[in-house]
Design a protein that fits this description.
The protein has five helices and seven strands, in the order ββαβαββαβαβα. The protein has a seven-stranded mixed β-sheet with strand order 1-3-2-4-7-5-6, with helices on both faces. The chain has a single domain, classed as 3-Layer(aba) Sandwich (Aminopeptidase), CATH 3.40.630. It starts with 8 loop residues before the first strand and ends in a 9-residue tail after the last helix. It has about 240 residues and is α/β, with parallel strands linked by helices.
Length: about 240
Protein backbone atom coordinates (compact mmCIF):
# COMPACT_ATOMS: atom_id res chain seq x y z
CA UNK A 1 0.00 0.00 0.00
CA UNK A 2 2.90 2.40 0.73
CA UNK A 3 5.02 1.28 -2.22
CA UNK A 4 7.68 -0.55 -0.22
CA UNK A 5 9.05 -3.78 -1.66
CA UNK A 6 8.23 -6.90 0.35
CA UNK A 7 8.99 -10.53 -0.28
CA UNK A 8 8.45 -14.10 0.78
CA UNK A 9 11.47 -15.88 2.25
CA UNK A 10 12.09 -19.49 1.19
CA UNK A 11 14.40 -22.32 2.15
CA UNK A 12 14.22 -25.41 -0.06
CA UNK A 13 15.43 -28.83 0.99
CA UNK A 14 15.98 -30.44 -2.39
CA UNK A 15 15.46 -34.17 -2.84
CA UNK A 16 18.09 -36.69 -3.84
CA UNK A 17 17.05 -36.41 -7.48
CA UNK A 18 15.05 -33.31 -8.39
CA UNK A 19 14.10 -34.87 -11.71
CA UNK A 20 12.27 -37.74 -10.05
CA UNK A 21 10.88 -35.90 -6.99
CA UNK A 22 7.76 -37.55 -5.60
CA UNK A 23 6.16 -34.18 -4.91
CA UNK A 24 6.58 -31.27 -2.53
CA UNK A 25 5.71 -30.62 1.10
CA UNK A 26 5.22 -26.93 1.94
CA UNK A 27 5.62 -25.66 5.50
CA UNK A 28 4.71 -22.02 5.87
CA UNK A 29 3.93 -19.20 8.27
CA UNK A 30 3.30 -15.51 7.79
CA UNK A 31 5.88 -13.20 9.32
CA UNK A 32 3.92 -9.96 9.26
CA UNK A 33 1.82 -8.75 12.19
CA UNK A 34 -1.39 -6.77 12.43
CA UNK A 35 -1.28 -3.01 12.83
CA UNK A 36 0.71 -2.00 15.90
CA UNK A 37 0.64 -5.48 17.43
CA UNK A 38 4.18 -6.79 18.13
CA UNK A 39 3.01 -10.19 16.89
CA UNK A 40 4.83 -12.44 19.36
CA UNK A 41 2.19 -15.15 19.05
CA UNK A 42 0.57 -13.98 15.80
CA UNK A 43 2.73 -14.95 14.14
CA UNK A 44 6.15 -14.95 15.72
CA UNK A 45 5.47 -18.45 16.98
CA UNK A 46 4.69 -19.85 13.54
CA UNK A 47 7.73 -18.07 12.13
CA UNK A 48 9.97 -19.48 14.87
CA UNK A 49 8.62 -22.97 14.21
CA UNK A 50 9.41 -22.74 10.49
CA UNK A 51 12.96 -21.57 11.22
CA UNK A 52 13.52 -24.38 13.71
CA UNK A 53 12.04 -26.95 11.31
CA UNK A 54 14.50 -25.80 8.66
CA UNK A 55 17.29 -26.68 11.07
CA UNK A 56 15.78 -29.95 12.27
CA UNK A 57 15.08 -31.20 8.74
CA UNK A 58 18.35 -30.07 7.16
CA UNK A 59 19.76 -33.61 7.28
CA UNK A 60 17.24 -34.55 4.57
CA UNK A 61 18.93 -32.40 1.91
CA UNK A 62 19.79 -34.60 -1.09
CA UNK A 63 18.51 -37.67 0.78
CA UNK A 64 14.73 -37.49 0.54
CA UNK A 65 12.60 -38.43 -2.45
CA UNK A 66 10.32 -35.48 -1.63
CA UNK A 67 11.11 -31.77 -1.88
CA UNK A 68 10.45 -29.69 1.24
CA UNK A 69 9.78 -25.98 0.91
CA UNK A 70 9.86 -23.90 4.11
CA UNK A 71 8.43 -20.46 3.49
CA UNK A 72 7.85 -17.29 5.48
CA UNK A 73 5.00 -15.41 3.84
CA UNK A 74 4.46 -11.68 3.75
CA UNK A 75 1.11 -9.85 3.60
CA UNK A 76 -1.15 -12.29 5.41
CA UNK A 77 -2.72 -9.57 7.57
CA UNK A 78 -5.22 -6.92 6.40
CA UNK A 79 -5.45 -5.09 4.08
CA UNK A 80 -3.99 -7.92 2.00
CA UNK A 81 -5.80 -10.79 3.72
CA UNK A 82 -7.52 -13.10 1.20
CA UNK A 83 -6.50 -11.01 -1.78
CA UNK A 84 -4.17 -11.74 -4.68
CA UNK A 85 -1.50 -9.70 -2.88
CA UNK A 86 -1.13 -12.17 -0.03
CA UNK A 87 2.39 -13.56 -0.11
CA UNK A 88 1.04 -17.09 0.18
CA UNK A 89 -1.38 -16.53 -2.70
CA UNK A 90 1.39 -15.41 -5.01
CA UNK A 91 3.55 -18.32 -3.89
CA UNK A 92 0.80 -20.91 -4.42
CA UNK A 93 0.01 -19.40 -7.82
CA UNK A 94 3.67 -19.71 -8.83
CA UNK A 95 3.71 -23.40 -7.86
CA UNK A 96 0.50 -23.97 -9.82
CA UNK A 97 1.92 -22.24 -12.89
CA UNK A 98 4.93 -24.55 -12.69
CA UNK A 99 2.65 -27.55 -12.33
CA UNK A 100 4.45 -28.58 -9.16
CA UNK A 101 2.65 -31.47 -7.41
CA UNK A 102 2.00 -30.80 -3.72
CA UNK A 103 1.83 -33.63 -1.20
CA UNK A 104 0.43 -31.19 1.33
CA UNK A 105 0.76 -27.65 2.68
CA UNK A 106 0.92 -26.97 6.42
CA UNK A 107 0.23 -23.45 7.66
CA UNK A 108 1.63 -22.75 11.12
CA UNK A 109 -0.52 -20.04 12.69
CA UNK A 110 -0.29 -18.82 16.30
CA UNK A 111 1.13 -21.71 18.31
CA UNK A 112 2.02 -20.25 21.69
CA UNK A 113 -1.10 -19.66 23.79
CA UNK A 114 -2.33 -22.36 26.19
CA UNK A 115 -4.42 -22.63 29.33
CA UNK A 116 -5.36 -25.58 31.51
CA UNK A 117 -8.39 -23.77 32.93
CA UNK A 118 -11.90 -25.00 32.00
CA UNK A 119 -13.71 -22.38 29.94
CA UNK A 120 -10.52 -20.91 28.50
CA UNK A 121 -11.39 -22.14 24.98
CA UNK A 122 -14.22 -20.99 22.75
CA UNK A 123 -15.27 -22.00 19.23
CA UNK A 124 -17.50 -20.62 16.49
CA UNK A 125 -21.07 -21.94 16.91
CA UNK A 126 -22.04 -24.75 17.05
CA UNK A 127 -18.56 -26.31 17.42
CA UNK A 128 -18.43 -25.53 21.12
CA UNK A 129 -20.85 -28.40 21.66
CA UNK A 130 -18.34 -30.86 20.21
CA UNK A 131 -14.93 -29.83 21.49
CA UNK A 132 -13.28 -29.46 24.93
CA UNK A 133 -13.45 -26.18 26.85
CA UNK A 134 -9.81 -26.09 27.98
CA UNK A 135 -7.34 -24.21 25.81
CA UNK A 136 -4.58 -26.77 26.22
CA UNK A 137 -4.61 -28.29 22.72
CA UNK A 138 -3.68 -27.44 19.17
CA UNK A 139 -6.15 -27.67 16.32
CA UNK A 140 -5.69 -29.20 12.88
CA UNK A 141 -8.11 -27.22 10.70
CA UNK A 142 -9.06 -27.70 7.08
CA UNK A 143 -11.74 -26.93 4.55
CA UNK A 144 -13.67 -29.87 3.06
CA UNK A 145 -11.32 -30.38 0.11
CA UNK A 146 -8.44 -31.13 2.49
CA UNK A 147 -10.24 -33.52 4.83
CA UNK A 148 -7.98 -36.47 4.01
CA UNK A 149 -4.81 -34.48 4.61
CA UNK A 150 -6.11 -33.11 7.91
CA UNK A 151 -6.95 -36.58 9.18
CA UNK A 152 -3.57 -37.94 8.08
CA UNK A 153 -1.62 -35.11 9.72
CA UNK A 154 -3.60 -35.22 12.95
CA UNK A 155 -3.29 -38.99 13.13
CA UNK A 156 0.45 -38.85 12.51
CA UNK A 157 0.99 -36.18 15.17
CA UNK A 158 -1.05 -38.07 17.76
CA UNK A 159 0.79 -41.32 17.08
CA UNK A 160 4.14 -40.04 18.34
CA UNK A 161 3.62 -36.77 20.24
CA UNK A 162 2.02 -36.55 23.67
CA UNK A 163 0.14 -33.32 23.16
CA UNK A 164 -3.65 -32.87 23.00
CA UNK A 165 -5.09 -32.13 19.58
CA UNK A 166 -8.46 -31.59 17.97
CA UNK A 167 -9.21 -31.93 14.29
CA UNK A 168 -11.90 -30.09 12.38
CA UNK A 169 -13.17 -29.69 8.84
CA UNK A 170 -15.67 -26.98 7.95
CA UNK A 171 -16.53 -24.67 5.07
CA UNK A 172 -14.69 -21.39 4.85
CA UNK A 173 -17.73 -19.37 5.93
CA UNK A 174 -17.33 -20.74 9.48
CA UNK A 175 -15.32 -18.03 11.31
CA UNK A 176 -11.65 -18.86 11.65
CA UNK A 177 -11.55 -21.90 9.37
CA UNK A 178 -9.86 -20.16 6.43
CA UNK A 179 -8.08 -17.37 8.31
CA UNK A 180 -4.51 -18.18 7.36
CA UNK A 181 -2.20 -19.00 4.48
CA UNK A 182 -3.74 -22.42 3.82
CA UNK A 183 -6.60 -20.47 2.22
CA UNK A 184 -4.30 -19.42 -0.62
CA UNK A 185 -3.33 -23.00 -1.45
CA UNK A 186 -6.98 -24.05 -1.44
CA UNK A 187 -7.61 -21.50 -4.20
CA UNK A 188 -5.32 -23.56 -6.44
CA UNK A 189 -6.78 -26.89 -5.34
CA UNK A 190 -3.75 -27.84 -3.26
CA UNK A 191 -4.46 -29.80 -0.06
CA UNK A 192 -3.69 -27.54 2.88
CA UNK A 193 -4.14 -27.60 6.65
CA UNK A 194 -3.72 -24.99 9.36
CA UNK A 195 -2.18 -25.99 12.70
CA UNK A 196 -3.06 -23.42 15.36
CA UNK A 197 -3.76 -22.66 18.99
CA UNK A 198 -7.07 -21.23 17.61
CA UNK A 199 -5.95 -17.58 17.88
CA UNK A 200 -8.67 -15.24 19.16
CA UNK A 201 -10.93 -18.12 20.21
CA UNK A 202 -8.45 -18.51 23.08
CA UNK A 203 -5.88 -15.74 22.99
CA UNK A 204 -7.11 -12.41 24.44
CA UNK A 205 -4.12 -10.51 23.04
CA UNK A 206 -4.86 -11.37 19.40
CA UNK A 207 -4.17 -8.37 17.13
CA UNK A 208 -3.43 -6.16 20.15
CA UNK A 209 -0.33 -4.29 21.35
CA UNK A 210 -0.25 -6.73 24.28
CA UNK A 211 0.75 -9.64 21.97
CA UNK A 212 4.23 -9.68 23.49
CA UNK A 213 6.81 -12.46 24.05
CA UNK A 214 5.92 -12.96 27.71
CA UNK A 215 2.55 -14.37 26.60
CA UNK A 216 4.13 -17.24 24.64
CA UNK A 217 4.43 -20.71 26.17
CA UNK A 218 7.89 -21.56 24.82
CA UNK A 219 7.98 -25.08 26.24
CA UNK A 220 4.77 -26.16 24.55
CA UNK A 221 5.74 -24.39 21.33
CA UNK A 222 8.94 -26.46 21.28
CA UNK A 223 7.03 -29.70 21.86
CA UNK A 224 4.66 -28.90 19.00
CA UNK A 225 7.54 -28.04 16.67
CA UNK A 226 9.27 -31.36 17.33
CA UNK A 227 5.97 -33.13 16.77
CA UNK A 228 5.56 -31.43 13.39
CA UNK A 229 9.10 -32.45 12.49
CA UNK A 230 8.12 -36.09 12.99
CA UNK A 231 4.98 -35.55 10.91
CA UNK A 232 7.04 -34.20 8.01
CA UNK A 233 9.41 -37.15 8.20
CA UNK A 234 6.38 -39.41 7.79
CA UNK A 235 5.03 -37.32 4.91
CA UNK A 236 8.16 -37.96 2.85
CA UNK A 237 8.01 -41.74 3.28
CA UNK A 238 7.07 -43.84 0.23
CA UNK A 239 3.86 -45.09 1.86
CA UNK A 240 2.46 -41.59 2.49
CA UNK A 241 -0.37 -40.75 0.05
CA UNK A 242 0.95 -39.05 -3.07
CA UNK A 243 -0.17 -35.61 -4.29
CA UNK A 244 -3.97 -35.22 -4.38
Amino acid sequence: MDGRAVRNIEITIEPANAGTSRGTVVLGAHYDSYGDAPGANDNGTGTAAVLELARLLSDLRSRSATRIRLVLFVNEEPPYFQTADMGSYRYARLLAERGEPIVGMISLETLGSFSDQPGSQSYPPPLGLLYPSKGDCIAFVAMPGSRDLMQALNGSFRSHTKFPTVGGVAPGFVPGVDWSDHWSFEQFRYPAVMITDTAYFRYPHYHRPSDTPDKVDIERLARITHGIERVVREMIRPDWPRPF
